[in-house]
Amino acid sequence: MKLAIMQPYVFPYIGYFQLVSAADKFVIYNDVYYIKQGWINRNRILLKGAPHLFTIPVTGASSFRLIREIKLSPDLFIKWKQKFFKLLHSAYAKAPHYSAVIALVKEAFNKEAATISELAVNSIKSTLSYLQIPAKLILSSATYSNQKLAGAERVIDICLQEKASIYINAPGGMELYDKSYFQSWGIELKFIKPGNIVYKQLEGEFVPALSIIDVMMFNSVSDIRVMLNNYTL
What we know:
Layout: E1 2-6, H1 14-22, E2 25-28, E3 42-47, E4 50-55, E5 58-59, E6 71-72, H2 76-92, H3 98-110, H4 116-130, E7 137-139, H5 151-162, E8 166-169, H6 179-183, E9 188-191, E10 193-194, H7 212-218, H8 221-228, E11 231-232
Parallel strand pairs: 1-2, 1-8, 2-7, 8-9
Antiparallel strand pairs: 3-4, 5-6, 10-11
Helix pairs in contact: 2-3, 3-4, 3-7
């Protein structure tokens, strides 16, 4: 059984969904420490041919608190998301799949969520449903009771609890994890390497690694499903 683990992000880039697709089970790592100025509550869309960073307002953000503990700002978030919907209209109204995708985004943002983790999970589930990707998602905070562990030891413990023989990690994990150490526990460590994904945007040179929102705005579901298989292990 193949397992993958990753922190929750709001409408993450297509590589995130490649990782979900490559695994039999996908663990949303929501009980590790939040990273300020990271990508948990931020992402990029395309605006006038250039990447535009958006930041979802949260309260009590701290590197000493777990992701699942970081709350959406109760007052600012409602106002922010209305502005964000207008921003998406300005950016993508002429995109071929605007109507379907803006409905998807609004559905995800309007679902009940008190924390950035819940909002991110809503966005991931909505995207998987739209792309017709069957996936078994597991919240780490609700399942494993192993917060006393950290790093590779905790990942291995999750793999052992799930009886996973293969652990698939994002490319950034190559600097963190040792294949021989995983092998000593009977787990094969693999890293996913996304292929070159390029598609037609509205204007200018292609801008890669944007939110999956951008991918969905410009590509059909069938075309995106082909892109999701464009990787090697």
